[in-house]
Write a structure and sequence with these properties.
This protein is of the alpha/beta class. It is built from 6 helices and 6 strands; from the N terminus they run ααβαββαβαββα. A 6-stranded mixed beta sheet has the order 2-1-3-4-5-6, sandwiched between helices. β4, α5 and β5 form a beta-alpha-beta unit. α4 crosses α5. The radius of gyration is 16 Å and the shape is globular. The relative contact order is 0.15.
């Protein structure tokens, strides 16, 4: 899939969607991770239009400066938003990726997870929906499919994240938050050390 082409079109067709509002479910998770890892730099990978920061100022809720009250504003990256399409350079203490991975075709999941881990020095916060769209959802790709093209159980995503950490050999922590078919969000912490030295089953849902 040409993600830039598909999502540039969807952003234009649905100006009120893909704004970044879903970050509100994960603000506390990001705040806790920033505090635990003393994060000074952040990347929001697949940020949408960025209204979660420009309008809602979600970043003021984590790592706020005691003098000005402002939090760490992430670098924003989204291939579907013209102003945010340029790939970031360097690495970041933390990487945020919410409401994006389920939009990636299964064949590309490993590549995108590798990219996310490659940008992170200390941690990632991943918010992943495990739910298909509702029948009334009007957002469709050019081939008629819904935008959630990889709908899998939390266990499937967990296994891919662990495989990614093993390949990377990088000491980062992944805070994965899954939205299951029903019920509350499911949270899992996956560390490179546990995956590498204690085996794939060391960290459980």
């Amino acid at each position: 899939m040409d993600y830039a082409k598909e999502y540039s079109y969807l952003h234009q067709q649905f100006p009120k969607f893909f704004a970044g509002w879903t970050l509100k479910r994960y603000v506390d998770d990001v705040a806790n991770a920033c505090k635990a890892h003393d994060a000074k730099t952040l990347l929001d990978y697949g940020s949408g239009k960025g209204y979660q920061y420009l309008v809602r100022r979600s970043h003021d809720k984590w790592n706020s400066c005691p003098h000005c009250g402002r939090g760490v504003l992430p670098t924003l990256y989204d291939v579907g938003v013209r102003q945010l399409q340029e790939r970031p350079t360097g690495t970041f203490d933390g990487v945020i990726c919410t409401d994006m991975l389920e939009h990636i075709e299964e064949v590309d999941v490993a590549r995108i997870l590798d990219d996310l881990v490659g940008y992170a020095n200390k941690f990632l916060v991943l918010g992943i929906s495990c739910k298909p769209e509702q029948p009334q959802d009007t957002k469709r790709l050019s081939d008629g499919r819904g935008v959630h093209v990889t709908v899998k159980l939390p266990e499937w995503w967990s296994a891919r994240i662990k495989d990614t950490l093993r390949r990377a050999g990088k000491s980062v922590v992944v805070y994965a938050i899954y939205e299951p078919l029903e019920g509350p969000l499911v949270r899992e912490t996956i560390s490179w050390a546990l995956v590498t030295y204690a085996g794939a089953d060391a960290v459980r849902l």
